[in-house]
Specification:
Blueprint (H helix, E strand, L loop, with lengths): L1 H17 L3 H21 E2 L11 E7 L6 H15 L4 E7 L4 H10 L5 E4 L4 H5 L7 E5 L5 E6 L6 H11 L5
Parallel strand pairs: 1-4, 2-3, 3-4
Antiparallel strand pairs: 2-5, 5-6
Length: 171
């Protein structure tokens, strides 16, 4: 979050320097405050699948150094936006050793879904993660209905069909 705060502060500073109107200053402060609230809400310290009882949950394990993750984040943003009202929740679990690296990735590839930092890798061990990214689609009953390793752009339709099936929507 430090990088985002620095960028936000730089934005505030540059906007204030360029135009010394109260509207720009207040607008920049609102943007900065909004970024802080979004990041605080997205980054959770604990993850409990029970918190999502009755929902379809896509748990995606990722790392800042993961090439395919750069493709999967925009896709997951689209899926969250498209199916949130139908009960889909996406939780991306970061396994980086350096939180700053994860935050740099998030500044380049913003997430419109929940982010969890798995500092001790306990969640990754629980799901026996062996590749990046690794995704687990959890049905409304809390059971894994599908798992895939990696992210292949050519399989996006298959991934979406699995989500639609878990949500009990027509394919």
């Amino acid at each position: 979050m430090g990088d985002m705060m620095t960028r936000s502060l730089n934005y505030v500073s540059s906007q204030t320097t360029q135009r010394r109107t109260g509207y720009v200053w207040l607008g920049a402060i609102a943007v900065f405050a909004g970024l802080l609230q979004v990041n605080a809400a997205r980054a959770s310290d604990e993850f409990a699948l029970d918190d999502y009882a009755g929902k379809v949950v896509l748990i995606d394990f990722w790392a800042s150094w993961c090439g395919p993750c750069r493709k999967s984040f925009p896709w997951m943003n689209a899926m969250q936006s498209k199916y949130a009202d139908d009960g889909l929740v996406i939780v991306a679990v970061n396994v980086d050793n350096d939180l700053a690296e994860a935050n740099r990735f998030l500044s380049d590839f913003p997430a419109e879904f929940q982010i969890h930092f798995d500092d001790d890798k306990s969640l990754a061990r629980q799901y026996e993660v062996i590749a990046m990214p690794s995704s687990f689609l959890i049905g409304r009953d809390g059971q894994v209905v599908e798992k895939h390793l990696g992210f292949k752009v050519l399989k996006q339709d298959e991934y979406e069909a699995a989500i639609r099936t878990a949500l009990e929507l027509e394919n």
